[in-house]
Amino acid sequence: MAGITLTDVRKSYAGNQVIHGISTRIADGEFVVIVGPSGCGKSTLLRMVAGLEAITAGTIEIGGKVVNDLEPRARDIAMVFQNYALYPHMSVRENMAYGLKIAKMSRSEIESRVARAAEMLELQPYLDRKPRALSGGQRQRVAMGRALVREPAALLLDEPLSNLDAKLRVQMRLQIKEMHLRTGQTTLYVTHDQVEAMTLADRLIVMNKGVAEQIATPLEVYERPASEFVAGFIGSPAMNILAVDSEAGTVTLPGGTRLPLSGLPRAGALHFGIRPEHLRLAQPGEAAIPVVLRSVERLGADAFGYGMVEDTDMAMVLRLPGTSPAARGDRIGVVPDMAHLHFFDPETGRRIEA
Fold first, then answer.
1. Which among 214, 260, 247 is positioned nearest to 233, based on CA atoms?
2. Residue ranges of the chain with per-residue pLDDT less than 50
3. Global pTM?
Protein backbone atom coordinates (compact mmCIF):
# COMPACT_ATOMS: atom_id res chain seq x y z
CA MET A 1 0.00 0.00 0.00
CA ALA A 2 1.07 3.59 -0.57
CA GLY A 3 -0.05 7.19 -0.35
CA ILE A 4 -0.98 9.31 -3.38
CA THR A 5 0.15 12.93 -3.78
CA LEU A 6 -1.30 15.32 -6.35
CA THR A 7 0.60 18.57 -6.91
CA ASP A 8 -1.03 21.29 -9.05
CA VAL A 9 -2.49 18.66 -11.41
CA ARG A 10 -4.07 20.12 -14.54
CA LYS A 11 -5.73 18.78 -17.66
CA SER A 12 -6.58 20.56 -20.92
CA TYR A 13 -8.31 19.40 -24.09
CA ALA A 14 -7.64 21.44 -27.24
CA GLY A 15 -6.60 24.40 -25.12
CA ASN A 16 -9.63 24.21 -22.80
CA GLN A 17 -8.64 23.55 -19.21
CA VAL A 18 -10.91 21.00 -17.52
CA ILE A 19 -8.92 20.27 -14.33
CA HIS A 20 -7.68 23.41 -12.61
CA GLY A 21 -4.61 22.79 -10.48
CA ILE A 22 -5.63 20.22 -7.85
CA SER A 23 -3.23 19.53 -4.99
CA THR A 24 -3.79 17.09 -2.13
CA ARG A 25 -2.15 14.24 -0.24
CA ILE A 26 -3.98 10.94 0.23
CA ALA A 27 -2.37 9.15 3.14
CA ASP A 28 -1.44 5.48 3.13
CA GLY A 29 -4.62 3.57 4.01
CA GLU A 30 -6.94 6.56 3.62
CA PHE A 31 -10.32 6.31 1.87
CA VAL A 32 -10.87 9.50 -0.18
CA VAL A 33 -14.01 10.11 -2.23
CA ILE A 34 -14.12 12.47 -5.21
CA VAL A 35 -17.71 13.71 -5.41
CA GLY A 36 -19.51 16.15 -7.68
CA PRO A 37 -22.15 16.47 -10.40
CA SER A 38 -21.82 14.99 -13.90
CA GLY A 39 -19.16 16.76 -15.95
CA CYS A 40 -17.27 18.20 -12.97
CA GLY A 41 -14.03 16.33 -13.81
CA LYS A 42 -14.05 13.71 -11.06
CA SER A 43 -13.61 10.68 -13.37
CA THR A 44 -11.00 12.55 -15.41
CA LEU A 45 -8.99 13.15 -12.23
CA LEU A 46 -9.25 9.46 -11.26
CA ARG A 47 -8.19 8.36 -14.75
CA MET A 48 -5.14 10.64 -14.57
CA VAL A 49 -4.09 8.95 -11.32
CA ALA A 50 -4.61 5.57 -13.03
CA GLY A 51 -2.59 6.59 -16.09
CA LEU A 52 -5.53 6.25 -18.47
CA GLU A 53 -5.41 10.02 -19.14
CA ALA A 54 -2.21 12.01 -19.60
CA ILE A 55 -1.84 15.06 -17.36
CA THR A 56 -1.15 18.46 -18.89
CA ALA A 57 0.78 19.87 -15.92
CA GLY A 58 1.67 19.04 -12.33
CA THR A 59 2.86 15.81 -10.74
CA ILE A 60 1.25 12.61 -9.46
CA GLU A 61 3.14 10.48 -6.95
CA ILE A 62 2.19 7.00 -5.77
CA GLY A 63 4.23 5.67 -2.88
CA GLY A 64 6.61 8.62 -3.15
CA LYS A 65 7.39 7.86 -6.81
CA VAL A 66 6.46 10.28 -9.59
CA VAL A 67 4.32 8.31 -12.07
CA ASN A 68 3.51 11.00 -14.66
CA ASP A 69 5.15 9.06 -17.49
CA LEU A 70 4.45 5.51 -16.31
CA GLU A 71 1.96 3.21 -18.05
CA PRO A 72 -1.04 2.09 -15.95
CA ARG A 73 0.38 -1.39 -15.40
CA ALA A 74 3.57 0.10 -13.95
CA ARG A 75 1.77 2.24 -11.34
CA ASP A 76 0.88 -0.62 -8.99
CA ILE A 77 -2.79 0.32 -8.87
CA ALA A 78 -5.99 -1.60 -9.51
CA MET A 79 -9.18 -0.08 -10.88
CA VAL A 80 -12.83 -1.10 -10.58
CA PHE A 81 -15.15 0.29 -13.25
CA GLN A 82 -18.85 1.01 -13.35
CA ASN A 83 -19.55 -1.74 -15.91
CA TYR A 84 -17.71 -4.60 -14.06
CA ALA A 85 -15.82 -5.68 -17.26
CA LEU A 86 -15.88 -9.39 -16.37
CA TYR A 87 -14.99 -12.10 -18.89
CA PRO A 88 -18.32 -13.85 -19.57
CA HIS A 89 -16.75 -17.20 -20.56
CA MET A 90 -14.71 -17.48 -17.35
CA SER A 91 -15.85 -18.55 -13.92
CA VAL A 92 -15.64 -16.24 -10.92
CA ARG A 93 -12.44 -18.01 -9.86
CA GLU A 94 -10.91 -17.58 -13.32
CA ASN A 95 -11.93 -13.95 -13.55
CA MET A 96 -10.28 -13.18 -10.22
CA ALA A 97 -7.14 -15.15 -11.05
CA TYR A 98 -6.65 -13.94 -14.64
CA GLY A 99 -4.45 -10.91 -13.89
CA LEU A 100 -2.24 -12.97 -11.59
CA LYS A 101 -1.77 -15.64 -14.29
CA ILE A 102 -0.72 -12.97 -16.78
CA ALA A 103 1.82 -11.80 -14.19
CA LYS A 104 3.13 -15.42 -14.12
CA MET A 105 2.50 -15.83 -10.41
CA SER A 106 2.77 -19.32 -8.94
CA ARG A 107 -0.36 -21.45 -8.85
CA SER A 108 -0.26 -21.80 -5.07
CA GLU A 109 0.01 -18.02 -4.57
CA ILE A 110 -2.86 -17.42 -7.02
CA GLU A 111 -5.08 -19.90 -5.20
CA SER A 112 -4.20 -18.38 -1.83
CA ARG A 113 -4.96 -14.82 -2.94
CA VAL A 114 -8.23 -15.78 -4.65
CA ALA A 115 -9.34 -17.70 -1.56
CA ARG A 116 -8.59 -14.75 0.74
CA ALA A 117 -10.45 -12.27 -1.47
CA ALA A 118 -13.40 -14.64 -1.93
CA GLU A 119 -13.72 -15.08 1.83
CA MET A 120 -13.54 -11.32 2.43
CA LEU A 121 -16.21 -10.61 -0.19
CA GLU A 122 -18.34 -13.67 0.66
CA LEU A 123 -17.91 -15.15 -2.81
CA GLN A 124 -16.92 -18.71 -1.87
CA PRO A 125 -20.26 -20.26 -2.98
CA TYR A 126 -19.99 -18.63 -6.42
CA LEU A 127 -16.38 -19.35 -7.41
CA ASP A 128 -17.37 -21.87 -10.10
CA ARG A 129 -20.25 -19.84 -11.55
CA LYS A 130 -20.10 -17.74 -14.71
CA PRO A 131 -20.96 -14.00 -14.48
CA ARG A 132 -24.34 -14.55 -16.18
CA ALA A 133 -25.42 -16.65 -13.18
CA LEU A 134 -24.71 -13.83 -10.71
CA SER A 135 -26.72 -10.86 -9.51
CA GLY A 136 -25.52 -7.31 -10.10
CA GLY A 137 -24.18 -7.04 -6.56
CA GLN A 138 -22.32 -10.33 -6.86
CA ARG A 139 -20.75 -9.25 -10.16
CA GLN A 140 -19.58 -6.03 -8.56
CA ARG A 141 -17.98 -8.02 -5.74
CA VAL A 142 -16.18 -10.18 -8.30
CA ALA A 143 -14.84 -7.06 -10.01
CA MET A 144 -13.59 -5.82 -6.65
CA GLY A 145 -12.12 -9.21 -5.83
CA ARG A 146 -10.23 -9.23 -9.13
CA ALA A 147 -8.68 -5.88 -8.14
CA LEU A 148 -7.92 -6.90 -4.55
CA VAL A 149 -6.09 -10.14 -5.40
CA ARG A 150 -3.39 -8.05 -7.04
CA GLU A 151 -2.66 -6.45 -3.64
CA PRO A 152 -2.01 -3.09 -5.31
CA ALA A 153 -0.52 0.03 -3.74
CA ALA A 154 -3.83 1.81 -4.31
CA LEU A 155 -7.38 0.88 -5.29
CA LEU A 156 -9.31 3.20 -7.63
CA LEU A 157 -13.08 2.87 -8.03
CA ASP A 158 -15.07 4.76 -10.66
CA GLU A 159 -18.80 4.93 -9.71
CA PRO A 160 -18.86 1.18 -8.97
CA LEU A 161 -22.41 1.14 -7.55
CA SER A 162 -24.26 3.26 -10.09
CA ASN A 163 -25.69 0.24 -11.96
CA LEU A 164 -27.24 -1.29 -8.84
CA ASP A 165 -30.72 -0.77 -7.43
CA ALA A 166 -31.20 1.24 -4.24
CA LYS A 167 -31.25 -1.73 -1.85
CA LEU A 168 -28.15 -3.33 -3.37
CA ARG A 169 -26.30 -0.02 -3.25
CA VAL A 170 -26.86 0.19 0.49
CA GLN A 171 -25.62 -3.38 0.95
CA MET A 172 -22.57 -2.81 -1.25
CA ARG A 173 -21.72 0.43 0.54
CA LEU A 174 -21.56 -1.49 3.80
CA GLN A 175 -19.43 -4.22 2.22
CA ILE A 176 -17.01 -1.72 0.67
CA LYS A 177 -16.59 0.03 4.03
CA GLU A 178 -16.09 -3.29 5.79
CA MET A 179 -13.57 -4.36 3.14
CA HIS A 180 -11.59 -1.17 3.61
CA LEU A 181 -11.54 -1.58 7.39
CA ARG A 182 -10.18 -5.12 6.93
CA THR A 183 -7.55 -4.37 4.30
CA GLY A 184 -6.50 -0.80 5.13
CA GLN A 185 -6.19 -0.31 1.37
CA THR A 186 -5.44 3.21 0.09
CA THR A 187 -8.61 3.96 -1.86
CA LEU A 188 -9.70 6.71 -4.25
CA TYR A 189 -13.41 6.47 -5.04
CA VAL A 190 -15.50 8.50 -7.52
CA THR A 191 -19.23 9.05 -7.18
CA HIS A 192 -21.94 11.62 -7.87
CA ASP A 193 -23.99 10.23 -4.97
CA GLN A 194 -23.49 12.33 -1.85
CA VAL A 195 -24.82 9.57 0.43
CA GLU A 196 -22.08 7.22 -0.81
CA ALA A 197 -19.56 10.00 -0.37
CA MET A 198 -20.60 10.93 3.16
CA THR A 199 -20.85 7.34 4.44
CA LEU A 200 -17.66 5.94 2.89
CA ALA A 201 -15.09 8.71 2.98
CA ASP A 202 -12.38 9.57 5.45
CA ARG A 203 -12.12 12.78 3.41
CA LEU A 204 -14.00 14.28 0.47
CA ILE A 205 -12.77 16.13 -2.61
CA VAL A 206 -15.83 18.13 -3.69
CA MET A 207 -15.44 18.98 -7.39
CA ASN A 208 -17.16 21.69 -9.42
CA LYS A 209 -16.21 22.47 -13.04
CA GLY A 210 -12.72 21.04 -12.65
CA VAL A 211 -12.01 22.84 -9.37
CA ALA A 212 -11.65 21.22 -5.96
CA GLU A 213 -14.11 23.44 -4.08
CA GLN A 214 -13.31 21.82 -0.74
CA ILE A 215 -11.10 18.99 0.55
CA ALA A 216 -12.11 17.99 4.06
CA THR A 217 -13.77 15.33 6.20
CA PRO A 218 -17.48 14.66 5.58
CA LEU A 219 -18.39 16.33 8.87
CA GLU A 220 -16.34 19.44 8.08
CA VAL A 221 -17.92 19.69 4.64
CA TYR A 222 -21.40 19.38 6.15
CA GLU A 223 -20.84 21.77 9.06
CA ARG A 224 -18.60 24.35 7.37
CA PRO A 225 -19.08 24.26 3.58
CA ALA A 226 -16.42 26.37 1.86
CA SER A 227 -18.77 27.72 -0.81
CA GLU A 228 -22.40 27.98 -1.84
CA PHE A 229 -21.82 25.16 -4.32
CA VAL A 230 -20.64 22.79 -1.57
CA ALA A 231 -23.48 23.90 0.70
CA GLY A 232 -26.02 23.12 -2.02
CA PHE A 233 -24.47 19.84 -3.14
CA ILE A 234 -23.74 18.18 0.20
CA GLY A 235 -26.83 17.61 2.31
CA SER A 236 -30.24 16.23 1.42
CA PRO A 237 -32.36 18.20 0.94
CA ALA A 238 -29.90 20.93 0.00
CA MET A 239 -29.16 23.93 2.20
CA ASN A 240 -31.53 26.89 1.85
CA ILE A 241 -29.71 29.96 0.49
CA LEU A 242 -31.43 33.34 0.90
CA ALA A 243 -30.27 36.71 -0.47
CA VAL A 244 -30.46 39.26 2.38
CA ASP A 245 -29.27 42.71 3.41
CA SER A 246 -27.67 42.82 6.85
CA GLU A 247 -27.31 45.63 9.35
CA ALA A 248 -26.72 45.76 13.11
CA GLY A 249 -27.70 42.17 13.92
CA THR A 250 -30.70 42.12 11.60
CA VAL A 251 -31.23 40.82 8.06
CA THR A 252 -33.90 41.98 5.66
CA LEU A 253 -35.35 39.59 3.07
CA PRO A 254 -36.45 40.81 -0.38
CA GLY A 255 -40.08 40.60 0.72
CA GLY A 256 -39.38 43.09 3.51
CA THR A 257 -39.30 40.64 6.44
CA ARG A 258 -36.73 41.63 9.10
CA LEU A 259 -35.14 38.86 11.14
CA PRO A 260 -32.66 39.18 14.03
CA LEU A 261 -29.60 36.96 13.50
CA SER A 262 -26.52 36.53 15.65
CA GLY A 263 -22.97 36.37 14.33
CA LEU A 264 -23.43 38.40 11.15
CA PRO A 265 -20.02 38.72 9.47
CA ARG A 266 -20.57 42.19 7.97
CA ALA A 267 -23.15 44.75 6.92
CA GLY A 268 -24.54 44.87 3.38
CA ALA A 269 -25.52 42.21 0.87
CA LEU A 270 -25.08 38.61 2.00
CA HIS A 271 -26.23 35.15 1.08
CA PHE A 272 -27.52 33.46 4.21
CA GLY A 273 -27.63 29.66 4.42
CA ILE A 274 -29.54 27.36 6.75
CA ARG A 275 -30.14 23.63 6.39
CA PRO A 276 -33.73 22.24 6.49
CA GLU A 277 -32.95 20.31 9.68
CA HIS A 278 -31.83 23.52 11.41
CA LEU A 279 -35.19 25.28 11.04
CA ARG A 280 -38.07 25.05 13.50
CA LEU A 281 -41.64 26.28 13.50
CA ALA A 282 -42.03 29.68 15.14
CA GLN A 283 -43.91 30.28 18.37
CA PRO A 284 -46.78 32.85 18.35
CA GLY A 285 -45.38 36.38 18.19
CA GLU A 286 -41.83 35.23 17.43
CA ALA A 287 -39.86 36.89 14.60
CA ALA A 288 -39.74 34.35 11.78
CA ILE A 289 -39.30 33.78 8.07
CA PRO A 290 -42.79 33.57 6.49
CA VAL A 291 -43.12 30.56 4.21
CA VAL A 292 -46.04 29.46 2.03
CA LEU A 293 -45.97 25.68 1.60
CA ARG A 294 -46.32 24.28 -1.92
CA SER A 295 -46.03 20.60 -1.01
CA VAL A 296 -45.28 18.27 1.90
CA GLU A 297 -43.32 15.07 1.35
CA ARG A 298 -44.03 12.47 4.04
CA LEU A 299 -41.34 9.85 4.69
CA GLY A 300 -42.61 8.21 7.88
CA ALA A 301 -40.67 9.52 10.88
CA ASP A 302 -39.92 12.77 9.04
CA ALA A 303 -41.62 15.01 6.52
CA PHE A 304 -40.19 17.73 4.32
CA GLY A 305 -42.07 20.91 3.59
CA TYR A 306 -41.28 22.67 0.30
CA GLY A 307 -42.38 26.25 -0.11
CA MET A 308 -41.50 29.84 -1.00
CA VAL A 309 -40.54 32.72 1.25
CA GLU A 310 -43.64 34.92 1.19
CA ASP A 311 -43.58 37.71 -1.42
CA THR A 312 -40.30 36.45 -2.93
CA ASP A 313 -39.13 33.90 -5.50
CA MET A 314 -36.82 32.22 -2.96
CA ALA A 315 -37.43 28.52 -2.25
CA MET A 316 -37.36 27.17 1.28
CA VAL A 317 -37.26 23.57 2.53
CA LEU A 318 -37.72 22.53 6.15
CA ARG A 319 -37.79 19.24 7.99
CA LEU A 320 -40.94 18.53 9.99
CA PRO A 321 -42.05 15.71 12.30
CA GLY A 322 -43.74 12.92 10.37
CA THR A 323 -46.94 13.57 12.31
CA SER A 324 -47.05 17.29 11.42
CA PRO A 325 -50.47 18.40 10.05
CA ALA A 326 -48.79 20.90 7.66
CA ALA A 327 -50.29 20.85 4.17
CA ARG A 328 -50.04 22.58 0.80
CA GLY A 329 -51.11 26.22 0.98
CA ASP A 330 -50.33 26.67 4.68
CA ARG A 331 -48.58 29.88 5.71
CA ILE A 332 -46.05 29.12 8.44
CA GLY A 333 -43.22 30.93 10.20
CA VAL A 334 -39.81 29.29 10.55
CA VAL A 335 -36.89 30.25 12.80
CA PRO A 336 -33.24 29.29 12.13
CA ASP A 337 -31.04 27.68 14.76
CA MET A 338 -28.49 30.40 15.54
CA ALA A 339 -25.77 27.77 16.12
CA HIS A 340 -25.97 26.61 12.49
CA LEU A 341 -25.91 29.75 10.35
CA HIS A 342 -23.82 30.04 7.18
CA PHE A 343 -22.90 33.17 5.23
CA PHE A 344 -21.52 33.47 1.71
CA ASP A 345 -20.24 36.29 -0.47
CA PRO A 346 -22.87 37.05 -3.18
CA GLU A 347 -20.15 37.71 -5.79
CA THR A 348 -17.65 34.91 -5.18
CA GLY A 349 -19.92 32.32 -3.53
CA ARG A 350 -17.19 31.68 -0.94
CA ARG A 351 -17.90 31.25 2.76
CA ILE A 352 -17.60 34.32 4.96
CA GLU A 353 -16.62 33.81 8.58
CA ALA A 354 -18.16 35.93 11.32
1. 214
2. none
3. 0.89
